[in-house]
Amino acid sequence: MNQRLLTILLSAFVLAAGASYLVYRLVGKQMSENARDRATVIVVATQDLPIGSLIKATDLKSASLLGGSPKDAILKPESAVGRGVLAPIYAGEPLVERRLAPLGSGGGLASTIPTGMRACAVKVDEVVGVAGFVLPGMHVDVLISGSMPNDQSTSGTKVRTLLQNIEVLSAGKNFQRDNEGKPAEVAVVNLLVTPEQAEILSLASNQTHIQLVLRNPMDHQLAQPPGSDVANLFGQPSARVPARVAARRPAIPLAAPPVQTALPIMPSALLVEVMNGGKTTQQKFALNGDSR
Fold first, then answer.
1. By residue range, what is the domain housing residue 152?
2. 77/108 same-domain check
3. Does the structure show a pLDDT above 90 at 194?
4. Structural Rg of the chain based on CA atoms
5. Which residue, 16, 207, 211, 264, is most buried by CB atoms nearer than 10 A?
6. CA 82 from chain center: how many Å?
7. What is the DSSP string of 55-111?
8. What local confidence, expressed as pLDDT, does residue 268 receive?
9. Do 123 and 231 share a domain, yes or no?
10. Is the model more confident about 244 or about 85?
């Protein structure tokens, strides 16, 4: 190969390498500028935020997110400070409007209650609380057991389903004082109910024993259980109404049987006794007109 051809090939290689490097730098710069244009500064949590907590400035930080931000994401930290948390937020997770309470509503359980609903606290024990498996967001049925006032039957304690498909807002421990004034730990479950259901639960908690029955959150069908009592456990029907109670009920008069009137028996002859002084005679006359 002559010297001239080698020089031409080497020059072409150098020019191609320089052009490739220049194109690479231009394309890389353009891609970086486009990426910066697509990046969005959002607000993320610096630590886990439980339900009901009030957000502080130290709980937040700003972060860049490529490819667009989530819908209704919080873009400025001052927009989230002082608001309550409606759903658990984990460290590094972006903050969105639908998981925060309105500004000024404060924190705690009250901020998680929807408009028109109420949070009713029910005191339970570990067994009644489904052994501690009742957690926020789950759905339960409320059963009551006890005796009806002025119940004179002998069927014993009765149980029935009071409410169905009730959402659990929170479940935790509270400290109350017992009869001796000592602090005692009790389990309290807050249920999301309507105002009418809150009245029913308040009355039931004072008059009966309450038990929570865990159900599948996807099962929204309402059953119609008939209720049960102690007599049913032993295979016996419910107790009948006592005799003294039944005696107070007015007796239904039975219809009297029709009166049968006997027809008079007509004599076949007529006997006439005739007294003449000391003599007495009898004369018999037939009803058909013949005399004997």
1. 114-238
2. yes
3. yes
4. 48
5. 211
6. 32
7. P-GGGEEEEEETT-PPTTB--SGGGTTTPBBSS-B-TTPBPBGGGBPPTTS-SSGGG
8. 66
9. yes
10. 85
Compute the distance between CA of residue 31 and CA of residue 37 in angstroms, rounded to an integer: 10
- The better pLDDT of the pair 282, 203 is held by 203
Largest distance between two CA atoms of the chain: 202
Tell me the pLDDT tens digit for each residue of 59-89: 999 888 776 677 888 888 888 898 888 888 9
23-32, 138-147, 188-197, 241-250: least confidently modelled range = 241-250
Residue 126's pLDDT is what? 54
58 Cβ neighbours under 8 A, 6+ residues apart: 46
Q: Structure pTM?
A: 0.53
pLDDT digits (tens, 9 = 90+) for 139-185: 999 999 888 777 666 667 888 999 999 998 877 765 445 566 555 55
Is 121 in the same domain as 16?
no
With H, G, I as helix, E, B as strand and everything else as coil, classify residue 244: helix
Question: 288 is written with which tokens?
Answer: 């058909």
Helix, strand, or coil (residue 197): helix
The CATH number assigned to the domain holding 69 equals 3.90.1210.10
Label residues 227-243 b or e (16+ Cβ within 10 Å = b). Answer: eebebbeeeeebeeeee
User: Which SS3 state, helix, strand or coil, does residue 230 take?
Assistant: helix
Find tokens 């860049």 and name the residue.
64
Q: Are residues 101 and 122 in the same domain?
A: no
Tokens standing for residue 217: 């959150």
Residue 137 domain-assigned (yes or no): yes
* 172-175 contacts at long range (C-beta below 8 A, 24 or more positions apart): none
Among 54, 186, 195, smallest CA distance to 124 is for: 186
